[in-house]
Structure prediction request, 447 residues.
Amino acid sequence: MIQAIDIDVWPVTNTQPRAPVRFNHLPLGFLSPVILLDSKAQQTELEWISYPPNGWEEISGLDENYTPIRTYQVCQVMEPNQNNWLRTNWIEKGDAQRIFVELKFTLRDCNSLPGVVGTCKETFNLYYQETDSEVGRSLRENQYVKIDTIAADESFTQGDLGERKMKLNTEVRIIGPLSRRGFYLAFQDVGACIALVSVKVYYKKCWSIIENLATFPDTVTGSEFSSLVEVEGMCVSDAEEEADNSPKMHCSAEGEWLVPIGKCICKAGFHQKGDACEPCGRGFYKSSSQDLQCSRCPAHSFNDREGSWRCDCEDGYYRALSDPPSVACTRPPSAPQNLVYNINQTTVSLEWSPPADTGGRNDVSYRVICRRCSWEPEECVPCGPNVGYSPAQSGLVDTYVTIMDLLAHANYTFEVEAVNGVSDLSRTQRLFAAVSIATGQAVLFRR
Prediction:
């Protein structure tokens, strides 16, 4: 798109004395390009190749801040068949495939120049040549590829000269895809009165960003105007890819990130804050990357370090292997209460009440330990496999059990213990209710 602005100038023709050129800086209108050449930024001589020598001429000028700049002009309008070439120095393209060339120039209206009918032109041509290295100062026209014919949107006239105003034109052209290490630009004058105020060469890239906790590196745009370059992101520190949903973005031809896909999530022990993952603080934890935030340690647990995925249990409290880190730590239950028995010869029935303290769990069951004791105190041995239990010896849900097939006239001690999911983890003394009995005469069966 052509843009034009009014500027204060000294006329630039081959009949006027050299004088400073003054113009306004125009915004580029796109995202952060990578500049390969900016003639306006160079204050020393450009030293581009001009052929023939009496064609394009390098002059000094001032920008809108009165900073010295170097420009080129040509105004061979009196004679026909002009063929004046100007070639830039070699431009290394880096990783670029599509190159943008922005030209700012002024052009004299041929009708404002007397005596040049048929010889004056109002266009010039832009060319380029790809090479892998510099080719010296020679200029061979047949090695250059034409990019376009450049015409002015606004040209200045004799009246503009009197008001010391003229129009500055901006034209942008694209070349590519390029495959060699670098290139030259060349400008062909065919008989116009031109001041080439600035030449800017650049390419576009998508600059490194963090999106969805993934870092996407600087990425050069694709070779085609409609191309999207797919880029895989790398998770930031202490983050990991979401399952089957790796982070991706697409770099557009205009240097913009588009179409985010997938994401990273903070690992266990870390939570998201802005574009980073920070560790959970002391007294907090995060057990899974799927959790969004850190949680305070559950009851009877603690941690004294940052970045924890679980909290440790206090002394005397435990967490079963099947317990998730989000549940409170618990302890074994207290002993069953109100244990009573009933003896019928060699069969004993036991009943009891639940413990006063379940340890904070709801998976309480009961188990019975049977010991046969001698007449001497504390001389007891396990009852052995011949003794029967109904409904079972362990894993009892109900608070009763019947013990059968005991020996007649024997002493027994029965211990009833309440257990839960952490009882076997406890290192403290077992808590149980106990009763000691003596069996009577065994039942005799007659045939």
Observations:
- The two ends are 118 Å apart (CA to CA).
- The longest strand covers residues 165-175.
- The CA atoms of residues 97 and 177 lie 5 Å apart.
